[in-house]
Records
---
Amino acid sequence: MISIETILRFLKLPLDLLVVVIKYYLGATKYRKYANRLKICLKLTIYRFGLSIPIQDAHVLKFMENSTLFKVLKFQYPKLTSTIPGYGEQFGNHGIWFAKDNFREKDDPIIIYSHGGGYFLETQLEQLKSLVAIYKHLDPTKKYSILFLDYDLVSMGRKFPRQLNQLDSVYSDLVEQGNTNIILMGDSAGGHLSISYVQYIYSHKPFLPYPKQLVLISPWCKLNIDSKSERRPGRSYNDNRLRDLISIDIFKPELFELFLNPKNIEFHPYFNWSHEPETNWSKIPFFKDPKNKVFVIYGEDESFRDHIIEWTNEVFGNHLSYERTNNKYSEICTKTIESKDKPKLVTYMEPWGVHDGIFFTEYDAIGNIENAKTDKYFGISKVIKFLNE
């Protein structure tokens, strides 16, 4: 059974899309960066609809397993995927190789990619398309491999920290096999999962080596928000409530009951570390090693913007602040911080960009592979540049 609320949202979707078309031709679209791209405006509206579905009903949007999604992409782009070594091969119970270099050695980099979707939505085809565009431009001499984390969804009754445990299983297996150069990459909820796992190693498995890098794309840094304070003018949740894929209205009191298993109280900090005053990031060895690297990218028009800036400042010092860009790329959009006692930090704010823009507005780079590393694809080009350094 699905709720009346979800049924009404489905019935309202065609009207919402019609309104988008009308506003587009009137020059009044709310998506500022995509005012001249109707297809993207329609796509963003559909994504916004998906993220607004009550979590307990989100299973109706799960059309296929991730392994099937890999096959769909292979069917659509046979030439591209056929040149990706190891594409679609299973790794244990919760891993699927997106790319496994045939000549890799134990110290060659492996990226564990954790997809976004609020922990309750399955991977979207667009996310895999953008991964192809990124992979095709990675330096072949570095022999990158990418392992997709196939974690369970809370909308299917698999409450947190199950997803954290599944990441731990995949990560631990790679370490046990002798791999020494692991990178955690995640968007949205996947970004939260990647950060949480570094903290989890510190608290529960200090014998494990830490990842060498974090690649965080619109990471979900604060899961339980104070709606009243976030609705103040000037806050990104308030100012971007109509511009972004994520609206503050989706955060309801029952969120924790749907996400968390009450029997696992000790794991709650990994779900909600942004509210734990005792969290001291400076004690975690990963965040004390200048040999490590952290990449953070987010959009000016996304709801998570302020929380991403606040978390980054909490960990690395008060280096970031928000300034309006007027859609012009400048020095305020990027920051590189290097110090003797912290990882190298590289951050980008996409002017007028929305949440998870790399995967939900730049996926067409798969059809324009040669130009994927150009400024036309703001986020994809920045990830490529960072990984190739």
---
Amino acid sequence: MQCHRDQDALIPRPRGNLPKVCAATLAAITIAAIVFLSPERLFGWVAMVILIVTLGPLLHGLCLLAEEMLYHSNTRYRGQRLLSHVLPVCGLGGKTLLAAGLAGLLLYLAGHPLPHEGQCWKLLFLASVLYTLFKSLGVLGPSEVEVSDICEGRKMNVAHGLAWSFYLGYLQLVLPCLEDSIASFRATHQASSPFWGRGSRKLLILIPLNSNISHKLEDEDDNIRFYDNLPNNNIDRAGVRGRVYKHSVYRIQDERGKAHECVVEYATPLLTLYKMSQQSSAGFGEPERRQQVLLFYRTLQDILEHSLECRNHYKLILLNDEHEDDPHFLSKAILRHLQQQEKEEFCLPPPPQQEMVHPLANTSRAPPSAPPLMNGEWHHPEPMSREPTLMYSLEEPLPLKEPVEDTDYYHGQT
């Protein structure tokens, strides 16, 4: 289980609700302090602060709405309704409007918290206008953590699109046929490959963190040798008749020189991430690429775990690039996963041999459930001293007998 712990230490978990809990705690402490110091002005202060916080985004939303309606209403929204679509995307949603309205009503009922009424309205409008200015200049823009949280929550990352494309365009098509392809391969290569490990019946998908993929595995590790290709899968796809999908079989040599056959390949979408990081126009550096690789792994793992047709036909292997100095790191990682899969499977024992029991000497005196007779005495077997085994019956099943009516009927009686 070491490899699972190593992967859990690398893969980022989805962000939780800790910021919300911290914000609620700070708000509760601040409100409690205000109640202790000046409880008579609590509702007025709360109402004015809510108005300041909500009026600023509303004014900034109006600025965004002006841009969208003047230049993008036809190209981006295709004549969609103003209230149902354009206003919410500009930040003028119902929640913000409702909060501002309730805060204004509360301020009117509670009275102005400042000594002079004019000071209260001046503070409200000045804070809202300055918020709009700083927001437009990017001073109050969302942080990178907020942008990342939004993109992950709404599945807007590059990794999410690549993971879904890899699944829908490739894995969903080939994984259900993998077992039949391996069976056909074993039938035609029985002489040269007499043993095929249990763990190698899955497609091993390599996901390196640096996304630098070699087109030939033997170029990265001399303990890996290309053996042969599985039978091709011809699928009609996107107007192409008989599009060919294939997998390659490799022989992985361990430290003792024993070869292990398996179907292994890299996740091809990682080539896209690597090429994007090499293009300056993509705005995609090495730190962003590494983060997207981890999100790709997490998204693909979640997709495949919920896919019934792909279940038990794959194995994702996350390769850490911190061990590039080891020339046999790739083969060791593959062998470690193969050995782990073999240990997780259960091996049924062979069918037990039937023991011939000699007939009893006096069957008429022996009850049907009597123990066997040994040396003229009834022998009671000792409790079970070995592991239980499955008992198989070699007799053919007999047909069920039809019910026979044996009830006596008396006719003529009233």
---
Amino acid sequence: MPRLALRVMAAVLGTLTLVTGCSSGGDGGSGKGKRPAGAHVTIRVPADAPTISAAVSLARPGDLVLVSPGVYHESVRIGTPRITLRGASRAGVVIDGRLQQPNGVVVAAPGVAVENLTVENNTQNGVLVTGSARAVAGLPGRSGGYDTGDEPVTFLKSFLVSYVTATRNGLYGIYAFSAQNGVIEHSYTSGGADSGIYVGQCKPCRVVVRDNVAELNAVGYEGTNASGDMYVVGNRLVGNRVGLTTDSDHLEKLLPQRGAVVAGNLIADNQQARTPEQADGGWGIGVGVDGGSGNQFVRNRIAGNADAGFVITATADLPPDGNEITDNAFAANGVDVGWTFPTATKGHGNCLHGNTLRTTAPARLAATASCPVPATSLTPSGTWARPTAPAGIPFTDVAAPGPQSQFPNATTAGATAVPAVPALPDLASIPLPAPSLLAAGARVPTS
């Protein structure tokens, strides 16, 4: 056997000895070491295991995998429940796919926390959280996302993605698909060739997306077939091609999309040319509703989007019905609110109330579609002058991220206990972002 192979084998055997030798007691035949029942350990990379994947394979529920700064060329799959994977430094711990692997981190077990690290250069996703076996296997769908065919819907329940930087990934930066009861927070995404943050195929979702920054993506945040207790609050969605979309799509199950709350977000200047070109050509739009229904858009600041601040339209045979747009501040958009239905599929019961508006298409929507309106009331359709989208750039060419905030006490805090069901936001307590937050780099307060 070559010397290099012998050294690698010795390192792995040494890792096993070190980790299993740190505690004693029966393990029920798990093969993952002797320790007292209920004991939790910290497995350090590379001190206790040579790779992140090796450390994760040694971890048991309640353990912390703590990763030292370095560039790790691996795809990490977490299949054991209630593990915490944390970087010692958000910018210093980099999982780099080198455009040779589909995903940086795949969470396929409940109660897992992924914290304080960077994932980049993956052909599909930076972080994927999913209960779908086909998605775990890295089988991409058409036009982005995952068309899982006749696979039954299976939810992964309970997850946390926090203080993660996901940049220059070929589909989504952070992707929760067929997953419930989770939180995506304090994270930064850029260079997502489809979306920076994506939540898809959940009902009821019970997912909270809060206090994130998404910039230089094709779409900042996208929710597809994401229904019921789906909250997008206090995020900065600025400088993408499209800021936020919520939609229904036949490529995923659990149609139609219904019942999301989008509140207290800054959605501005989503007209950047140096971004990945989205497949359907969207550009210059703050918020887009495409076949989504029963959603609430409350106290968002929507400004400087060259095409439109807020667009409602239909997708294929799926109408957008009963969306409420209330108490939002619009400014300096091509048109503040534009409702357009170019096909036979129309919307019903969509309405506005209490917004700061300059222009709408059709005109006078604030008066003619003032909330409440009958559920059967036909949503009017209009047209407006729409700018031509500039050519995009490859996701690999998007600008590198700037400094981001760190997970507090990353190297000294214990493992994170992820709740079975997250606390859902109190809508009444979510404020309208101040105009000063339009300044570059300003964060939106979540309380």
---
Amino acid sequence: MKLHTVRTHRSDEHLPREEELAWKVAQVAADPVAVESEVAEMIVNRVIDNASVAVASLSRGPVVAARGQAQSRPQADARPGRAGSAVFGVEGVHDPEWAAWANGVAVRELDYHDTFLAAEYSHPGDNIPPILAVAQHTGADGAALVRGIATGYEIQMDLVRAISLHKHKIDHVAHLGPSAAAGIGTLLGLAPETIYQAIGQALHTTTATRQSRKGQISTWKAHAPAFAGKMAVEAIDRAMRGQTSPAPIWEGEDGVIAWLLDGPDGRYEVPLPEWGEPKRAILDSYTKEHSAEYQAQAWIDLARRLGLEHPELRNPDAVRQVVLHTSHHTHYVIGSGSGDPQKYDPTASRETLDHSIPYIFTVALQDGAWDHVGSYAPERAGRPDTVALWHKVTTAEDAEWTRRYHSEDPAEKAFGGRVEIELADGSRIVEEIAVADAHPLGARPFARADYVKKFRTLATGVLADAEIERFLGLAERLPELTAAEVARLNVVASGLPTPPEGLF
């Protein structure tokens, strides 16, 4: 890996195109370096993981609505090389940008797929829907799809390692637009010039504020990354037609760094693979065993264990207070440090509750389990004993856990913390957890069998048994799939809700 210094340049400074970050990213995307077998295997895992959570969300409102929008755009002139794309849950082929949109919402709706956290936050699996949609539309085979996905993960995660967006209240999908465009560029074998223009357009159209993840969180939370993927598809199309983009998009005097991020004095060191260096970033990401914000994963595991070992903790009358000592991010984004009263509101939306660590810790403690539906049900959130205990749970930033959160050492990087529970009788229970059980360094690291189990579990009752086996049979052979098989890398369900009417 090579570090590239990125900063704002005045208009009267000479910044050669070769020194722009967008050009350097385009060079990485254009590099035909082979995908290592270990990386290809993990890509298979994440394709299965994405399908798992998409299937589980097929009947949820945002997914039904997005699917309806895609279904109103059937591929009218399907032909070789422009065959249209599949939409999760239904038959037929659709315009690729709308398939990317619908599938992106389905993948993101339950907050249940992979994550990578560094200077910024990310769900790099969000790259898969737009890259897959374009692969199906253009008749790409499995090997090309794997190459594209490897690039998408690499670019998003490299940007996430170096450039903080949330510090300036910019939503994290601003790193996803460029990465998805780069991944599609790799998939199609496009020239660096074309990829460069698409990256600039994708970034320019996908910067938005973090209000989508603040206060009463709305259904847009699931749509935001899908929008970034859709914009990446459209940016590639425009760039292929010879259209250009604002430049230099990051470094310009009126560019992203100058006005949205750290300003004219901002400086970043962005790591990117050198020419011929394999793209291995996906191996540093991690998936979720539980349907909740990633920083909640370890806390769910600890709470489940504490509830089983100390059942008295489930009774709010027995507990005086619970303090979760944790990282800056956990405290201020999903903890009491956010100042959001909605995080303690039993009538709050599911999107809000899955960003409330006081709620999540309480329910996991009382139930000894976590369910992607039942744990968020209104009747579960409103249970009087839960509300009473929930309001006794607060968070506090701990400098050491913040340091470990930002550590570059994989063996030290942590997303948990220390819980201190004071009981009504004056006794105390203190426990800590660094990473989730499913983390690569956790008690039960996720492996292929776990991804397959997750898919089977979430698909049961939604898909026919034969459809479950058909999809898994394709997904596990992903690198060897023909173009015709990639076109069938989808699932079809029956009895799905009818999409609501809109403009289209």
